[in-house]
Design brief:
Helix content is 42%, strand content 15%. With 254 residues, it is of the alpha/beta class. The relative contact order is 0.15.
Amino acid sequence: MTDFSMFSLAGRRIMVTGANTGIGQGIAVAVAKAGGEVVGVGRSSIDETAALVSAAGGGFTPVMCDLADHAAAASMLERVWDSSGPLDGLVNNAGIIRRGDAVDLSEADWDDVMDVNLKSMFFLCQAFGRKTIAARREGRIVNIGSVLSFQGGVRVASYTTAKHGVVGITRVLANEWAAKGINVNAIAPGYVVSNNTEALRGDPDRSAAILGRIPAGRWGKPEDMGGAAVFLLAPASAYMHGAVVTVDGGWLAR
């Protein structure tokens, strides 16, 4: 008989950033369905996610924070831990994208993406790691990369660079923290229906080219990322450290 408790998040409290929409929302709902309690972080209304998590039978705590400010992000996590109890997991999903030819990309478009997608992600990991190690607890971190963690892409220089960095941070933290009881892994989504891909999906030629390369024959859905996230947060992945799980409909295999 399969021991499904290996995939249960019952009794676990998981912070998910960028939980108000897209992949973050899909992961938040999956965590709830696996029995976990969700601390959803966003810079805009999280009411829709709260309702979906509640419908899935999970507890939900909304937290408003602009993750463009790395100091505010780290202090937010510390405040949540100190005021309402320890976190068992952190899913760093929040991210933005700026599209433009490399010869035209502005410094602001470079910095904005780096601040959210890489800098705040690292300092959230650091805050979680410090709290978890000091409390002598075990913990799980799941960072959200991209297939552009391995490829160059087109017209997304800052985003591609940041997503390569996500994998680097995942690996270095796994090396430092595995022996301390903290599992640090990542998910690399493919092309998913979300705010970040709206421009691509709105371009008939680009959308057709993307779909033509995906063996699964469709764009990913936010909920497609949920199972992988639950697995990396659950006991079943206890010996996984520094891994990058690709969930891309076969994009990288093509």
